[in-house]
Amino acid sequence: QCPGIEPLCLDLADWDATEAAVGAAGPFELLVNNAAVAVLQPFLEVTREALERSLDVNLRAVLHVSQIVARQMIAQGVPGAIVNVSSQASQRALRDHAVYCSTKSALDMLSKVMAMELGPHKIRVNTVNPTVVMTDMGRINWSDPQKSAAMINRIPLGKFAEVDDVVNSILFLLSDKSAMTTGSSLMVDGGFLVS
């Protein structure tokens, strides 16, 4: 749909491959960090592999890709915007989500530090924090009607988010319409956090 976009397919957990691929791309003015994994395990059953994979993709990759892109923006002397896709799970404990909630909370704080340090370079950094989104991953993790009903009953708008709900929020934060917004988390949760 967007002929000017050239996708790069790589494992973001591979630090060196990411450095080479993203470093060779650009120039950048905008960045959306959206890659994530959600390995759901009860706290007492969390495995080392699940923790390491989640930290690699949900946190380390965001830090690394953002460093590469922000350095290029600063070198070019252009203003920019970065949006990190977080989750309502960064702010509310969810059963079997110990690792996911923790990595998303860490992502929110990383984004605030990025906003503080990159602001003087005219680079804005914000997060979008959706509820469950009906992506392939969302359908896999929330296909059990009993589990999904319990969550939907806590959402005042009574439904999970669609992809467009999140995309439109990201587009707002990337645009000049949010020129004075940085270090913020935009909740796209149907009111989950107020219930």
Automatic annotation (TrEMBL):
One of its GO terms (biological process) is xylulose metabolic process. The keyword Transferase does not apply. InterPro entries: L-xylulose/Carbonyl_redctase (IPR051737), NAD(P)-bd_dom_sf (IPR036291), Sc_DH/Rdtase_CS (IPR020904), SDR_fam (IPR002347). Belongs to the short-chain dehydrogenases/reductases (SDR) family. The keyword NADP applies. This is DER reductase. The gene is Der. One of its GO terms (molecular function) is carbonyl reductase (NADPH) activity. It comes from Balaeniceps rex. Homotetramer. PROSITE patterns: ADH_SHORT. Keywords: NADP, Oxidoreductase.
